[in-house]
């Protein structure tokens, strides 16, 4: 049943599926890979030397290098203007590119038109599988690195990923370029396998076939494309072995499997394989207060951030305003936040609190005024650069990476302070292992700081609401911030949990961290905050120490209203 042709096409199908895996793993839906493959195939056939002159293997190696380079270039050229697109819009734009390439090749004289170009058969099963092993090796080794975790974070929630300091655009373009390189390899191998390169081989059907193979195999584990290709390639062989000659069975089974995966197995067939998560043994149990620091002793090999001395201004807001049409969400806010200060921001629902912190963290540009935060101008600076300056935050509505474990979430939070290891991991350099171990240890300490170390291997989406809020704080602490913004962290917690959280937040400010706390629990704010600012209808109506603010008549009126 497993003929030489079948074995070869399993490898080719897996390589093509990897070009889809590369972008799906970064949350992108691209259908342009067939176009990249066709451009690479035709270019390599024209440029590569004659195998009869230099030999089969040298000619194929040159063709593969050319194909990967051309595929990468085509992906970058297409990716630069389309990176702002998402979902179905990106799929349509990339599909349009692939169809435009196919039609051009179909009508160009030098391509042979619909008849295609004759190519010598060079690829053997061994060659196909060696190239597949090389491609799989890239994804295997890149997965548990800072780069690989950044792509997974973007896939799960790109807004949260940007707030963690990840340059979303650059990483998405990198994933696109990887997809182009892998698709280019596939195009060359296909041409030198089937002895012909024709536009019909790289049409819409080929693109959908590659997408289905990747999704059925799984987009959350590197082995997925191989599993999907093996499963779908052997279906026709099983048919032939059973004497069933029905060409519709394979696409029917593929479509049915895709439906099952979307509905019941979002991680694909390979997604059923459990992720291996190593949790460092810190000793001393799951409590303690030294996570995020080096109190356990030993070198962490993390990037260090220079924090402002206690009492220095870390954020200064001058006339900060935000309008949405005729609605004034925030109006003329002047405010300073100091290092080592725990500043409470309170106000009734709709007062503009979240809008204000969104402007401070760079997620929302102000309509007027200026927010100078740790040396950068928030709103005029990309959000990942605001995070790089030392701003870290949680969100009003939890934005965890649900399909990642608690430890992996915190590893993403440490993106800015951990070292890149991708190239060193590919070369198996010992320093890469040391740096990855340092990142794991740092993440585990952050989990221990919030009392979550025992849940390190649990999937974030399966945690209780209270644990998710604590995990968000651990992820924010992993960035070693100078300014920590907590947006209603005690929401949904019971009295005991809120009390423990209050102790944690107070300890962070005592360590010298500037903390901006948004909270509806006025009792908690009065208990732990050094200073309180009250917003109502977007304006500051009171500011000062908690006891004075709580007694202010304007604050009482804002919260309780007045009698008619």
TrEMBL record:
Protein location: Cell membrane
Location of the ABC transporter domain: 315-562
Gene3D superfamilies noted in UniProt: P-loop containing nucleotide triphosphate hydrolases (3.40.50.300)
Membrane-traversing stretches: 6-24, 60-80, 87-110, 122-140, 173-192, 212-235, 247-269
Region (Disordered): 284-308
Alphabetical UniProt keywords: ATP-binding, Cell membrane, Membrane, Nucleotide-binding, Transmembrane, Transmembrane helix, Transport
Highest taxon in the source lineage: Bacteria
InterPro entries: AAA+_ATPase, ABC_AA/LPS_Transport, ABC_transp_permease, ABC_transporter-like_ATP-bd, ABC_transporter-like_CS, BCA_ABC_TP_C, LivM-like, P-loop_NTPase
Membrane topology reported for the UniProt record: Multi-pass membrane protein
PROSITE patterns documented for this protein: ABC_TRANSPORTER_1 (PS00211), ABC_TRANSPORTER_2 (PS50893)
PANTHER family assigned to the protein according to its UniProt record, in alphabetical order: CONSERVED COMPONENT OF ABC TRANSPORTER FOR NATURAL AMINO ACIDS (PTHR45772:SF9), CONSERVED COMPONENT OF ABC TRANSPORTER FOR NATURAL AMINO ACIDS-RELATED (PTHR45772)
Name of this protein: Branched-chain amino acid transport system permease protein
Organism expressing this protein natively: Promicromonospora iranensis
């Amino acid at each position: 049943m497993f003929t030489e042709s079948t074995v070869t096409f399993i490898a080719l199908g897996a390589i093509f599926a990897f070009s889809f895996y590369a972008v799906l793993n970064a949350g992108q839906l691209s259908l342009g890979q067939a176009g990249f493959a066709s451009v690479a195939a035709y270019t390599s056939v024209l440029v590569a030397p004659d195998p009869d002159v230099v030999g089969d293997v040298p000619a194929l190696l040159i063709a593969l290098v050319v194909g990967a380079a051309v595929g990468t270039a085509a992906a970058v050229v297409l990716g630069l203007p389309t990176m702002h697109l998402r979902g179905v819009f990106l799929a349509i734009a990339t599909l349009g590119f692939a169809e435009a390439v196919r039609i051009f090749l179909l009508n160009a004289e030098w391509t042979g038109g619909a008849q295609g170009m004759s190519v010598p058969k060079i690829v053997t099963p061994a060659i196909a599988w060696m190239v597949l092993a090389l491609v799989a090796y890239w994804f295997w080794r890149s997965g548990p690195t800072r780069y690989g975790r950044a792509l997974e974070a973007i896939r799960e929630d790109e807004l949260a990923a940007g707030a963690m300091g990840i340059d979303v655009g650059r990483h998405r373009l990198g994933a696109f370029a990887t997809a182009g390189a892998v698709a280019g390899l596939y195009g060359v191998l296909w041409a030198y396998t089937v002895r012909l390169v024709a536009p019909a081989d790289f049409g819409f059907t080929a693109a959908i076939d590659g997408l289905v193979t990747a999704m059925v195999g799984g987009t959350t584990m590197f082995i997925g494309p191989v599993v999907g290709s093996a499963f779908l390639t052997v279906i026709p062989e099983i048919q032939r072995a059973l004497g069933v000659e029905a060409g519709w069975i394979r696409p029917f089974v593929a479509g049915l499997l895709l439906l099952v995966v979307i509905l019941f197995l979002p991680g694909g067939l390979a997604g059923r394989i459990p992720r291996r998560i190593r949790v460092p043994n810190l000793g001393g149990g799951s409590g303690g207060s030294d996570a995020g620091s080096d109190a356990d002793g030993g070198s962490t090999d993390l990037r260090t951030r220079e924090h402002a001395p206690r009492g220095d201004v870390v954020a200064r807001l001058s006339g900060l305003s935000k309008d949405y049409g005729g609605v004034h969400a925030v109006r003329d806010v002047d405010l300073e936040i100091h290092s080592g200060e725990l500043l409470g921001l309170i106000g009734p629902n709709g007062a503009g609190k979240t809008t204000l912190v969104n402007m401070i963290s760079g997620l929302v540009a102000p309509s007027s005024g200026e927010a100078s935060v740790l040396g950068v101008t928030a709103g005029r600076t990309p959000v990942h650069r605001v995070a790089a300056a030392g701003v870290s935050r949680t969100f009003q509505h939890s934005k965890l990476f649900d399909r990642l474990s608690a430890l992996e979430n915190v590893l993403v939070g440490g993106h800015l302070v951990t070292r890149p290891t991708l190239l060193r991991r590919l070369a198996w350099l010992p320093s890469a292992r040391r740096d990855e171990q340092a990142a794991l240890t740092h993440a585990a300490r952050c989990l221990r700081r919030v009392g979550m170390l025992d849940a390190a291997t649990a999937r974030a989406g399966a945690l209780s609401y209270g644990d998710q809020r604590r995990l968000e704080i651990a992820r924010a602490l992993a960035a070693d911030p100078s300014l920590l913004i907590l947006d209603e962290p005690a929401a949904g917690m019971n009295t005991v949990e809120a009390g423990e959280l209050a102790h944690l937040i107070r300890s962070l400010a005592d360590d010298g961290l500037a903390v901006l706390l948004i909270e509806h629990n006025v009792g908690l704010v009065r208990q732990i905050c050094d200073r309180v600012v009250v917003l109502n209808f977007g304006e500051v109506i009171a500011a000062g120490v908690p006891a004075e603010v709580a007694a202010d008549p304007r604050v009482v009126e804002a919260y309780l209203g007045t009698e008619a």
